[in-house]
Amino acid sequence: MKVMMGNTRVTYADDNSYGVVTNTEIRREQNYYPFGMEHKGYNTAMYGVKNNLKTYQRQEFTEDLGLNTHEWHYRMSDPTIRRFWHVDPLAEDYVYNSTYAFQENKLGMGIELEGAELVPHTWLVSGAVANPNGVVATILNAVDKAVDYTSAVVSRIADNLDAIGQDINNDLNEFASHGPTLEMIQKYNPMNGFGGKKFNWEKLNKMQ
Question: Which residue has the higher pLDDT, 193 or 77?
Fold first, then answer.
């Protein structure tokens, strides 16, 4: 029996084939904290062989060697520290996220897609479409705008770095061909701030 987040909460079987499941046929009950750590101290009764194959968000729970981690397709998460152990395989596409953040730090908005990214609940998306002025739509739009702005900033920084790199490369070619010039010495003098070779933060701040 699963809940909205995909967590397996109750495992049972109609052992006597009567068509009704009684308390004696409930094999295991599990309750979880938001990042997947299991509640302890109650519901400890378990009938039959323990099975950790599908637990929190239907992922396998590994207790071997005391690891206590969930095994996703792309990486493993540790519910005690609420993070993944490995770098996000889509880190270059989601530059606004921590590379180890679990479910993009958006608990409650969806489920984790095999350690790759957040998948919003279908009812959440459909609700935002049905009511574009509602709270849910406002939150999703705010997230989208933050993502777009961050991506734009990173893109501008990358362009700025490319321009600086090209300028330095041209100077290196000039140096190899004709030796250092007075202009080069002034440009790359540390006391002169390397000729003003810095990011144009004013331009970044004026982005629409």
Answer: 77
pLDDT (tens digit, 9 = 90+) per residue, 145-198? 666 666 666 677 767 777 777 777 777 777 667 666 666 666 665 555 444 444
- CA–CA distance, 159 with 207 (Å, rounded to integer): 14
**d(C-alpha 129, C-alpha 118), whole Å:** 19
Q: What is the DSSP track for 38-97? A: BP-SS-----SS---SS-GGG-EEE-GGG--EEE-SS-EEETTTTEESS--TTTTT-TTS
Distance of CA 82 to the CA centre of its chain: 11
Residue 104 neighbours by CB distance under 10 Å: 18
SS3 159: helix
pLDDT value of position 68 = 92
pLDDT of res. 191: 53
Comparing C-alpha atoms, which of 68, 76, 75, 66 is closest to residue 52? Answer: 68
Using alpha carbons, list the distances in angstroms from residue 139 to 19, 130, 135, 142, 143: 45, 14, 6, 5, 6
d(CA 191, CA 130): 60
What's the distance, Cα to Cα, between the start and end of the chain in Å? 49
List 76's β-bridge partners, or say none.
Answer: 71
124 sits in which H/E element: helix 122-130
CA 25 to each of CA 11, 21, 207: distance values in angstroms, whole numbers, following the listed order? 9, 6, 62
Listed residue (201, 183, 179) closest to 192, CA to CA: 183
